[in-house]
Amino acid sequence: MSKKFFPVFLVLTGTILFLAFQTQGREDDPKSKNEKILRNVGMLLEQGHYSPKKIDDGFSKLVLKRFIADLDDDKTIFLQSDVDSFKRFDSKIDDEIHGDKLESFYAVSESYTRRLNEASEYYKTILSKPFDFSKDENIMLDGDKVNFPTNDAERKEVWRKRLKYLVLTKYSDMIEDREKNKGKEFAIVPGDSTKKEKFIYKADSTLEREARDQVRKQIGRYFTTLKNHNTTDELFSSFVNAITGSMDPHSNYFAPVDSRGFTEMMSGKFYGIGAQLKEDQSKIKIASLVAGGPAWKSGELGVEDEIVKIGQGTAEPVDVTGYAVSDAVKLIRGATKGTEVRITVRKPDGNLKVIVLKRDEIKLDDTFAKSAIIKGEHKIGYIYLPEFYMDFEDPKGARCSDDVAREVEKLKAEKVEGIVIDLRGNGGGSLPEVVKMAGLFIEDGPICQVKGRDEKAPYQWKDRDKTVLYDGPLTVMVDEFSASASEIFAAAIQDYKRGIIVGSTSTYGKGTVQRTIPLNPESESVVFNKKSEDLGTVKLTLQKFYRISGGATQLRGVVPDVVIPDRMELAKAREKDNPTSLSWDEIAKVDYKPWTSTFSTDLVASTANEQVRSNTTFKKMREKIDSIDKENDRAYSLNLVQYQAGQKQLKARYKQLEELLKLPTQLEVKNVEADSARLTADKEKIEKNKRFLNTLKDDIYVDEAVKVTNKMIAQSNFALNHGAATLPGNKN
Length: 732
Known about the structure:
By secondary structure, the chain is an alpha+beta fold. The longest helix has 30 residues, at 152-181. The chain has 23 helices and 22 strands.
């Protein structure tokens, strides 16, 4: 525990102990326990949060709105009269946090449970009759753009349209599948071509009925899941998270079971395929892939893919439409290495794909730094770093700064003329490792500033080693998922003008530091001479990062020197897209000496940006991204012909975008000699390495980073050949 945090912790502990005395003897009362949790959380937020909002009537109103949205973001459960009745708590929740009797949570959650039971009765009647897909009807799926229904009839109509849309999507897929396979023969047993049978052609009415049957089963499971998971404890966790989330996106409450689950999740051992999931408008989607995991290695699963079915080996797959993410995860996880899971996903273009994966533990060495050589106009070294890792338990364990240094040495031995460091998708990690890694490329000096809530002056994290491992042309690749530690590294390289940052419009924009704090310190058990009640933990935002130039990385992230269109901007999942994110600000810059080199970062960036703007491929990519974005921001037709036309157009746009992302001529990529020698004996590593190299060969963004590096090399060569230490006009 840092010295700066210790006084705050003592204050928090003292307050919690006082509250513990107040509630002594009432621990078995669930309502009393919830009130205790609420007060402890409120105290932590007020006394420990980096930039706490005042817990007053305005905050109360914000929490209520967030809690209602968390329960019913699609606006299919509550009636407007319910929401109106909740307004009596607009000015009450802050008082409840400060010690008043808890009433708001129970009123909202009881109303939600009652309305959920009512809504769950609609679907069987609605799905008992065929839909007419010749009518011109539309549905808006974005809950932010619709109102709560005013009465039961309106709510039934909302459900009728939603169910019709679900049936339409399945019905349309069935028709497409029928037309593709009409007249074809298929093996009765997969892999056995000796026994075949013809594809069974079914009438439209049959397909429509089967589509309704499938949706009926899915929605039945959906409501069962909601009812099973929306226990009072789980709803209360959502309520407390509405409070913490109203402070900022990264402050969270974890109930005891969730706290243990969070710890397990951070170990990376329980996602059998190495994928993290999220819920998006009642759909389960891929949120991210764990580098080195089976899903990542397959190259077939992508962020934003919707999971439709999950099957165990050859067993009948389970349709998980409407499932809770936690239940889907249970189906994906497996107890044994090598067992098979079949996942049916709907790609962003609407196509269905069955992906077969074998479960495995996520091996740590798959997430380590790795390098390659890219040959072309110049010999370029490439280093991929998926995260800023550090083994905190083993002093001799893996550290990314040591591993990157090792890769740099390998590349120098191969006499590369420039190096590209790829931080795309790197969500961060150890701050000390960022500082050490940045120190490999500069002489010495500050790397970033960190400031706590009551600290008058920020603390400077510095590289104190004057040695420079590599002083040649350097390019750093980032994207909208490069966050936290990645942003610190990129910002330092940019501020020192040590190299060129290449990527999408900006990085993620997470410039805050969190610490996990228990709501029941161990000292409580000493006071009462018994085991303390487990109230869970709070992950609390305590500090903020700042660049050495003074600006925060928070919200704005790092804007690359060379900006390239990126299709993942459609996800709109950066810090700036969350309304409760902390604001951007700046503090005084620190003293540091910019890098002096034989190339001008300003001139290279200016030339590269001009080439990106005039590049036909990037122009078309930007147009396709914009058109797809507009297509997603509209109401959907419930008319079969119009829906099919829209899907055809959308699939064509995605296909065109996929083609644009492929390089017309592959890059020439190979391993460094030191790695090639170690790969000959391990078949698994050989296959893994092959996929790694093949991915680089077709990567249009790596190609652009190489071009930028080539420009630096050309300028350096020009300067050296003309006997100049630096180029004229270089602002370095």
